[in-house]
Amino acid sequence: MSEITGQTGLRNGATAVVNESYSFACMRCGHGWEASYEIEHHIDGEGREFVMYVADGRIVPSPLSRPSCPNCDNHVVRIMQSGRVASVRDAAHRQHQVPPAGPVEVPGGPADGTAAPKEHHHWHLSDLLHVFHRKAG
Asked: What DSSP string describes the chain?
């Protein structure tokens, strides 16, 4: 679910600080986003360990407890490995790119570039409608 990117400098009494990143997808509106967190490990006055999630310099609730969509505020959110949202966006961007203009090669055509004569086929209406006919039986 997360990618541990390493330890950063200790601060604010933390015994360790680990960076984790997640990808999120809202199951209601389809919005996708990514976020990175610093997870600060602390020890309280009674010697018990606890963690604090920090995002953009602010302490935030754990993204694993009850994430909410920033687009529609829904709580049905899928949490995934970091980079998933970016990879989907990149794939969608590549899918919508127009290929460069230029000559098109036809597989199996003559090597000199001349078009091969096509076999002429005369279509009848029955050729097109036969898929709609049921056989009696």
From this structure: --EEEEE----TT-SEEEEEEEEEEETTT--EEEEEEEEEEEE-TTS-EEEEEEETTEEE--TTT----TTT--S-EEEEETTHHHHHHHHHHHHTPPPPP---PPTT--TTSPPPPPPP----HHHHHGGGPPPP-
**pLDDT at 64 exceeding the cut of 50:** yes
Amino acid (1-letter code) at residue 124: H
Token pair, residue 28, equals 């209601």
Phi, psi dihedral angles at 126 (to 5 degrees): -65, -30
Confidence of residue 118 (pLDDT cuts 50, 70, 90): low
